[in-house]
Amino acid sequence: WLLLRHDEDKLALRRWQRESGDWETIHRDPALLSDAHALLWSAAREDWLAIAYYGARRRWYGKDSSIGAQLTALQEQLPEANLQLSATADGSLWLVHAQQGDLAQDGHYLYRPEENLLQRLFDQQSAAKSSPPPGAVMHPLTYRASDGMLLHGYVLLPSGIAPGTAPLIACLHGGPISRMYDEYNGGIQLLVNRGYAVFVPNFRVSTGYGLDYTLSANGDVGNGRVLADIINGLDFLLAEGIGDRDRQAVMGMSFG
Question: Which of 58, 69, 75, 233 has the greatest CB tally within 10 Å of its CB?
Fold first, then answer.
């Protein structure tokens, strides 16, 4: 069992048969959008229970309808969170790590899928720490580049300010072969808190959307194709009524 491309564009769950040398694709993203990102495994069964893909947000799919229903029941209790899951050997207990872009503190839980019981961990420790209030939501967006390619990213909007009057900043991830996720970022949240609309593009060369997406800039990560992707994204937001055209900037840095 491997999360592998094997001559395809995107990572998928594949199985290799030693006797025949054949590869079988077990599961790929139903949306045909993103790479496989994580697997929930049962050591006792020696089999997978669920698989996750991370496009704009992390999406889990069960191996069968029963596990799918358990995942749905879990997600209904944590509707805005991106979930990382691991299981005990027999799969009867799941450890849940919940993240989302507007919350500084992650949540940790134990989940009993057969009973649909979710138990929060570390309540006392979390209560003892001062946590900042919720920040701005990372709204997923897609837009077309000037050459027609579909691109991905997020936008965060300041509270109490008309979107069309806010200064607009593009915050770029480093790498450049990397990407931004729907996770809390203190530097970006500070800008939004100070009244900026912040565009967070996963321009081409970003990971997570297949090998073609990563390689499609053909190495031009300077003032050419990748910069055009960023400018196209800013123009898209301005056309949607987000940001002040006379107050926009690109920040060539990564907040870690």
Answer: 233
